[in-house]
Amino acid sequence: MLISLFALLFTAAPLVAQTTFEFGNDREGTSVYLSSKSRRKALSKALKKAGPEQIESSYAEATKDLTESTLCAYDIVADLRSNLEQRGVKFKKLSGVIYYLRSKSRFDDSVAKLYLHAAKVNRTKVDFSKDSDDVSKLPQYQELMKVFRKLETTKTKRCLDEVYRGVLSEVFKLSDKLKPAQFEDLLFEAFDANHISKETYTGLERARINELEKKPFNLKSYQKKIKSLRADFPLSSTPGLSDFVTVKIKDSKLSRRQRLLETYDGFQIAFMADSIKKLRKRLDADMATLQFFTGGVLDETKVLEPQERFRAAIKLLRMDMRTLGLNSFFKGKAPNFIDLMTAAYELGVITGRELDEIAGLEELWNPKKTFLQKYTVWVRALSSVASLAIPAPFGFIPSLGLMIIEATTKPTNNTANDLGLF
Predict the structure, then answer these.
(1) CA 62 to CA 64: how far, in whole Å?
(2) How many Cα atoms occupy the beta-carbon half-sphere of 383 within 13 Å?
(3) Which of 178, 166, 159 lies closest to 121 in space, CA to CA?
(4) Cα 295 from Cα 143, distance rounded (Å)
(5) Residues 149-180, buried b or exposed e (16+ Cβ, 10 A)?
(6) Range 47-67 average pLDDT
(7) How crowded is residue 51: how many other Cβ atoms within 10 Å of its Cβ?
(8) Those residues with Cβ within 8 angstroms of residue 344's Cβ, 6 or more apart along the chain or in another chain
(9) Contact by Cβ (8 Å): 287, 303
(10) What pLDDT is recorded for position 230?
(11) pTM here?
(12) Which of 51, 306, 413, 415 could form a disulfide with 322 if both were Cys (CB 3.0 to 4.6 A apart)?
């Protein structure tokens, strides 16, 4: 197969028998990829060329032998195309097919994105007769050529992006001052001198053109993250889906959940979800007090009124957000409130129903409205969430609503100077 390449330099551990893996969708409602008319049109065109049964069976065959060790979007997409062609259906682009499979929840938007990108990479045209500069006088030239020759002798199968990153690592380890243009010429020289096959060169050149070294998030990292989260934070038997997490982020090509899974690791997601869990506990507490001590002796205990408890809980959440940004585990990442909500939903701390109650109040998300206008809308809308048994004047959903209002009306993160409790 064109996309499958032999591994380089690293002796992989023998593959052990693993349970066949299947993707699915247990969190997302309407796909971010089906929100535009052009994409829905591409889906319809795909169904006119190939019926649902042809698409479904072609994809099932492409993924039937998947294991966690062999997950590779480039191979799956190539097999999907091949299986469709064997059924007499040819597509120039597979995007409509992928949109259809996503609409049937065969996978979520994160996997759909990986498939769409893989399909683009697999279609990339490669020039086999390019003019290249002479690189034979480069330092370590013979050693650099050995790097490529080993691709044809090592028998361990690995995914295209993994192989390409391995090649880059070894090449730049030998010649750390190598320029990108020189690497391009070096790669072509390896092909022209028959050190690597046309198939291998095609794969590596497609990886180079599409800069796969800059895309560390792949099917294996996705599966590893989801598996770990589901093992540590199992969802209920009927978790439900939410459209909130598939809303596209402003000035970004990612949905809220895609950003979460691509930006944060499992530990970070757990920390973020725990902040919302703490908020819920604080709001559900029977009582909150302030205690004053002098010389170790309790002088006074003040019971907070409902409105005071509400404000204190919101303030504490903002302080938690600032602490997360300073935590060494986050490596300089500063999650915003929407990230926290998405993480909480991912781990089941917030239900889809609760998220959608808020997401349904479109006026809260209107960027043209002021804080006061949105706050007024939210106060009027409290009666619409009475079915969730929220005790006035504070509660979990109102708190989330207030945080959303502030998050969408203030241009910068308001946690930096928010260190006081009241």
Answers:
(1) 6
(2) 3
(3) 159
(4) 73
(5) ebbbebeebbbbbbbbbbbbebbeebbeebee
(6) 94
(7) 13
(8) 272, 273, 275, 276, 277, 350
(9) yes
(10) 93
(11) 0.84
(12) 415
Q: Which one of 46-60, 233-247, 348-362 scores highest in mean pLDDT?
A: 46-60
pLDDT over threshold 60, residue 116: yes
Provide the CA 250 distance to its chain's centre, in angstroms: 16
For the packed helices 266-284 and 306-326, what is the interaxial angle rounded to 10 degrees? 170
* 277-298 pLDDT per residue, tens: 998 888 788 899 999 999 999 9
With a CB cutoff of 8 Å and minimum separation 6, the contacts of 23 are 63, 106, 107, 108, 111
Strands 297-303 and 157-158: unpaired
Tokens of 56: 């479904």
Nearest to 245 by CA among 43, 397, 26: 26
Conformational region of residue 321, where left means phi above 0, alpha means psi within -120 to 50, and beta covers everything else: alpha
- The closest of 114, 87, 85 to 98, measured between CA atoms, is 114
d(CA 287, CA 20): 50
Which pLDDT score is estimated for 407? 57
Q: Is the pLDDT of residue 391 over 90?
A: no
* pLDDT band at residue 153 under the 50/70/90 scheme: confident
At 380 the pLDDT is 57
User: Which of 13-17, 205-209, 333-337 comes out lowest in average pLDDT?
Assistant: 13-17
Task: Provide the pLDDT for residue 399.
Answer: 66
